[in-house]
Design goal:
The structure holds 2 protein chains of 2 kinds.
Chain A: H1 6-42, H2 50-74, E1 79-81, E2 95-98, H3 105-113, E3 117-120, H4 122-125, H5 131-136, E4 140-141, H6 150-162, E5 167-169, H7 187-195, E6 199-207, E7 226-235, H8 244-261, H9 277-283
Parallel strand pairs in A: 1-7, 2-5, 2-6, 3-4, 3-5
Antiparallel strand pairs in A: 6-7
Chain B: H1 5-16, H2 42-56, H3 67-70, H4 74-89
Helix pairs in contact in B: 1-2, 1-4
The chains are: A alpha/beta, B mainly alpha.
């Protein structure tokens, strides 16, 4: 009996994964109304205190994400690797920043932290079916096009952090383009400086890439995608005298170095999506303005 | 000769936002303040709004749909300041 060529085997396995994704989405679509109803009920009954309610909502969401990750692994659609980060996390609330290559990122970070507040685009936050759930779970409405609305976001985020919640933010503001980073905004770092909490920098890598802007849900790659979270560093804003400009430059510089150098050898798909130095230079390494508020 | 509002605002931007390598005179009056132009961000806008309130007594209302228009350039910001100051000078109009 002749054996199948590698490309045929690859095609068959890829097709099998696509079938499993369709099956997963079918089941997900069938049970998601139950999950939505559960969250809708939880957002309305008992616990008049918004902080207690947000904690409860985040606990339920975390459990759901962790269950989803196990299930996706079990049906060999995707593997999530974030437990290695746990020992490096600070004990108290913090601002967690990360690059944002896929739409699975927020679920992985939430499952890692066991909850966390985040900022949603006004168009999403104001959606009729979602508004109440997002509000009850401590999600903050983003500033939208109003340039001075960042003040409300910062104040709101600092209040949640003071209540003991961590904040999860993607400083690029949207999903990262393939193999590169967009410029970082300053809001996450300003929030960390004002709340006087550390900034935890997580590096996210998905190999092979899936659920990015370019690789849609129903075109899963083969082999099975591994979404891995790595702790890059934890930065105390006191080390930069609570200057959000310097804190952003420090953290963004670290991410750009990570993109240039890639992960240590032995990690899945090492070097697969590392940015070329020339591209990195073009994309803005060393583009920062020479500014400092420190006398 | 008295400094124009445009020049005062340019100096205020540089001093408030600690733009060490930017000469106020080099800021183009019509150039965008955010993104491609001077490259300010949303937190800069917040700090600038507070500085404008302190220096010119003009408060920027949050959630005003026209804020993006007001904060587009030095010229649009000056027009906003003049309009707000005129409202205060002529109450009831």
């Amino acid at each position: 009996m002749s054996s199948l060529t590698p490309s045929v085997t690859h095609g068959i396995l890829k097709f099998a994964r696509t079938v499993r994704v369709y099956f997963f989405m079918g089941v997900y679509t069938a049970i998601s109304p139950i999950g939505y109803l559960l969250l809708a009920i939880l957002s309305r009954v008992g616990k008049a205190d918004p902080v207690a309610r947000a904690r409860r909502m985040q606990r339920v969401t975390t459990t759901a994400y962790r269950f989803m990750h196990r299930w996706l692994h079990w049906v060999r659609i995707a593997h999530f690797d974030y437990r290695g980060v746990l020992p490096g996390l600070p004990a108290g609330p913090c601002v967690v920043v990360a690059n944002h290559p896929t739409i699975m990122d927020i679920s992985a970070i939430t499952a890692l932290l066991g909850g966390g507040c985040t900022v949603a685009k006004p168009s999403l936050y104001r959606r009729r079916m979602l508004h109440r759930l997002l509000e009850a779970s401590g999600t903050i409405e983003g500033p939208g096009p109003d340039p001075v609305a960042a003040g409300r976001v910062v104040d709101s985020a600092v209040r949640w952090i003071q209540q003991g919640f961590s904040l999860i933010l993607f400083p690029e503001g949207t999903r990262s383009p393939p193999g590169r980073l967009l410029p970082f905004g300053r809001a996450a770092f300003e929030i960390a400086c004002r709340a006087r909490v550390p900034v935890v920098s997580l590096a996210i890598r998905c190999v092979p890439m899936w659920l990015s802007k370019e690789v849609p849900l129903f075109q899963p790659p083969h082999p099975m995608p591994h979404l891995r979270l790595t702790l890059l560093a934890t930065d105390d804003p006191a080390a930069v005298q609570f200057d959000s400009h310097r804190l952003r430059e420090l953290v963004e510089g670290r991410y750009r170095s990570w993109y240039l150098l890639g992960l240590p050898s032995g990690t899945p798909g090492d070097g697969a999506d590392v940015m070329e130095p020339a591209t990195a230079a073009k994309e803005g390494v060393g583009r920062w303005r020479n500014r400092s508020k420190i006398a | 000769m008295e400094e124009s509002l445009e020049d005062r605002l340019k100096t205020l931007i540089v001093e408030t936002l600690a733009l060490e390598d930017v000469d106020p005179a080099s800021i183009q009056t019509d150039a965008p303040l955010f993104g491609e132009g001077l490259g300010l961000d949303s937190i800069d806008a917040l700090e600038l709004a507070l500085a404008i309130h302190t220096s010119f007594g003009v408060k920027t209302r949050e959630n005003d749909e026209r804020n993006r228009e007001y904060y587009h350039s030095v010229r649009s910001l000056c027009e906003f300041i003049r309009a707000e100051q005129a409202k205060v000078a002529a109450p009831g109009t």
